[in-house]
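Re: beginner question about structure tokens

> Can someone show what the tokenized structure looks like for a real chain? I only ever see the sequence side.

Sure, here's an example I had lying around. Input first:
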Amino acid sequence: MKRHGENGFTLIELMVVSTIAAVIVAVSVMAYRQGFTREYALSQQARSLTMALQYVRMQALENKNTIPIVNAQSLDQAGAFFRKIAFTATDHGVKVGDYVAVAGLRTTVSSDTLSAGTFYVSASTPSTFDCICYHSDSVMVPPSPNVALARNLTRTAQLSIQKKGFVDSLSETEKYARYKNPQVFVYDQDKFIICDSIDFDDAQGIPKANTAVLTYSPVPAFNSRGFSSNEAGFDLRVSSVPPKPHGVRVIRISPFGQVGLGRTN
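And the corresponding structure tokens:
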């Protein structure tokens, strides 16, 4: 018999409280593990991208490859001078704004070989690029066994950061080539968001609309000295899906080419 003035819990009450406490602990542990897993996956993704950038920079420092010129044609004649040369080259990797050194060209009026020069790239397609060059005699590629060669002084090596959904939509041959190419970094767009800081809306804290398309691809690059091809450097933002304000990794490429991994506050 319970005495007057005694306080306590029945066995059923203790069992109910213990069950509730166990459920709370289990839910907390699961949430912690999920959060830890997402945090770990984000960190690993950022580290992998950092290592890929460092590898590409080393390639830029060691890259002495040249671009064989298949064809060259003088264009935009004004009076006695041409103002442009259109080059044809396979997989040249040259972009508008780059500077290229070209050697081995000949004039069409003589067998003389033109002196090597450095030219500004004003237009580019996957198989051609145009350079601004004022010259009086039209140019041509010398017949075999002579060759004309170009070297990209601005963009010796680059890393094309591409979405898995886009790469998987390509042909088997092209898909295989991109997965094996060390200058292509493929990531799962359903788990991560990777964008250039210039394409990020800091006011709203979300990427701009153009980063959502499958073909969106930041392309940081290095020149032959290992410096950034962009004078201001690059800032790449890596976040998980859905993005969180305090769950962003920032990879900074300085103007001198140093690659560093950080985190937003």
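Each token stands for a local structural state, so reading them left to right follows the chain. Residues 2 and 115 are 110 Å apart (CA to CA).
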